[in-house]
Specification:
heterodimer; A: mainly alpha; MetI-like fold; about 0% strand; B: about 550 residues; alpha/beta; Rossmann fold; six-stranded mixed sheet; 19 strands; globular; P-loop_NTPase (chain B)
Chain lengths: ~290, ~550
Amino acid sequence: MSQSTPKELTAAYMSWYRFSRNHAAVIGAVIVISVLVMTALAPWITPFPDHIGSVVDFRNRHAAPDAQNWFGTDKAGRDVFTRTIFGFRVSLMLVVGVLGISVPVGAVLGMSAGYFGGWTERIITGLTNVMLAIPPLVMALAIGNVLEPNLTNAMIAITLLWWTWHARLVYRITVSIASEDYIEAARLAGASHMHILFREILPNCVAVISVKTTLDAAFVILFGATLSFLGFGVKPPTPDLGSMVADGRQFLPEKWWEVLAPGFAIFYATLGFNLLGDGLRDMFDVED
Amino acid sequence: MKRLLDVQNLNISFSGYGRTQQVLHDISFCVNEGEQVSLIGETGSGKSVTAKAILGTLPANATIDSGSIGFEGMDLFNLSKPDRERLKGTAFSIIMQDPLSSFNPVFRIGTHLDDVMRHADRRQGIPDSAKGRKSRIFETLRKVQLSDPERIFNAWPFELSGGMRQRVLIALALLHQPQLLIADEPGTALDVTTQYEILRLIKSLVVEDGLSLLMITHNLGVVRQTADRVLVMQHGHMVEQGPLQRVFSAPESDYTKSLMAAVPPLYGPNVTNQPVSDKAPIITLTDVQKIYKKRGLFTQGEGHLAVDGINITVNEGEIFGLAGESGSGKTTVARMIMDLLEPTSGTVTVSGTPSENALRLSQIVYQNPGTSLNPKRSVQQILDVPLKHMGYDKPKRRARMEELLTLVRLPVNFLSKYPHELSGGQKQRVAIARALAAEPKIIVLDEPTSALDVSVQRTVMDLLLELRDSLGLTYVIISHDLSLMRNFCSRIAIMFKSRIVEAGTPEEVFRTAKHPYTRALISAIPVISDAEEAQKPTVTDEERSQFLVANTGS
């Protein structure tokens, strides 16, 4: 038999090994990276970067896919491929905006509830439960109607509810960690509450939080597309996947490319984040 | 004598993370009919892998590279899968190690037993009704000295004590009268007196029914009680095998010798008596009582009496041992000394002046270094916490860390390591270094070595003794391991049901134990020589039943 070389197995290598064994996860990572690269390089890789503005080219409207317009053109003659790639920008902005606020807030509240206990715990878990009872779509539509139906308000609406999932998740982990000997040992060594929360407990939650956040990214993209499909998204003419599907809908089935391209883009990004999240879960060995 | 089990040149390797590692190297041994064989080895020696290979329960990433296992002349590796399955539970069966996690909490005990019996019946083609199976199960339960099978059968797992559950696990293994019983560290999760009862039971069952026994253990005392022949494994190699008498009286391999030497003696010339300190008292407990109040709307005032009437004086520089079994209240006492708990009545005085900047007078070293070190923090980060609190600046902290690691005999480059890169003994050293970093006067040791192998245990205890001498520390050690305390403590107190029933120097307690519980506790400790066995105090069966029935629960 082949005697193994006693090379040290580092934690990073073992994690990468588990991740790379999961082919779906690698595909997910490739998809997510491709979305990020396309979004970042959008002005340079798209054929008609000016088509994201209010360009009107009636001679070319509803053109079928060809060598010049890979995914055809829409009702104003704008290139669908260009607009789809730029549409990712709005989706990703929503992801960053919503998760960038709700994940830290949820994690801090969850950790505090689990660690301090008592009234802190009662108030935070109570609030979490109440917020979980509100359907996110209803909340978003309500805020969109009361304020103004735009992307910022949609983001606020989703963020207001999204932190609860993270708070609950982190709370559960913290409760089990808080009774570990190493937390008491840190306290006996003179560590402050801040140190215990952010240096002792948080590193043990990072794996779970990052898995959940990746899976959430897919949800937020879908959710954002739903809202803009319903007219609560960005203002035209800024390209946005959900509103592109809504706009193209009236020309179905003849002008199928106008719906298919943004629809597929939503599917592509969502799938990528979901597969990546599953892969991370394997890598961190997180039990759901 | 007929050969029952015949393992020949077994080589097994595990693969993982793209590489393979051989875990068993040319293992050969046999078990004859009616013979009791013990397989000794420490963590990672490959003893459990050997048992799994016999049972056919190797994990999916294990490969059998070469060798054979014969059972009554059949080659197990050449049997068809259904034939192999049929042997499970009937030709050989295993007694599970952990009575606490081996039952599914949502099924009654009877369901566990009946499931195993029904499936084994089906494999063997025995037709039997539910009623018939039940009567056979009752018979087996009586065999393992569970006198009320009806109650056990209908009980939920959580309703039974650890000792009773271990008995049910033995019954599970005996349902179909196997010829070979494999016992994987039976009772190690239980108290020493319960473990003693379990071993007596296994031994009597094996002798009465003429079974063969393959006992897997790391406890040499257990081996002496239960084995005719001994196999010693280290790092996947069989380093020694031979009859019990020969191996114990004249071990051949260096490894066996070091294992024997690491076992703390109870009696005889090798016992160490720690000098009693005559310095001023540093810890004084007077008439301490602790009641855990139940918090609830309707249960105001009710509570659980954890400790009662405790009087302890610990002098500076002393190693005070608090012995007792689980639930005896010893941890509560230790936490009150640590000022982590308030006594309900009585006073706890810890005198002495803390070192400059030190947060407190006492620090603790926990039982399980696996859970007392944060898995996400490196040794450097772990040691940084107490040092920061001592008010040291960065270069001073770094210098102190190196000093501490040298004190606990670890190389300085361990600072960048994470707990999962360390062995159990190394982790415990880091935990000791962390306690020392806060410059305490008193260190509470909560079963400091129970999670470690015997040979590692010895080195950790030697280190602790050295540190006490060089740093002038006082130790309070709580443990159920009396053999450890015999050699390590200057004075001990035995706790039983919330009270201290016996106290004195270890020498006095071991020679002239007055309380029957103390005598039962000492006599239950597995020792490795007949000379020591003969010096143990005697306990009458009446006394044993008086004090142990509540624990073993049969």
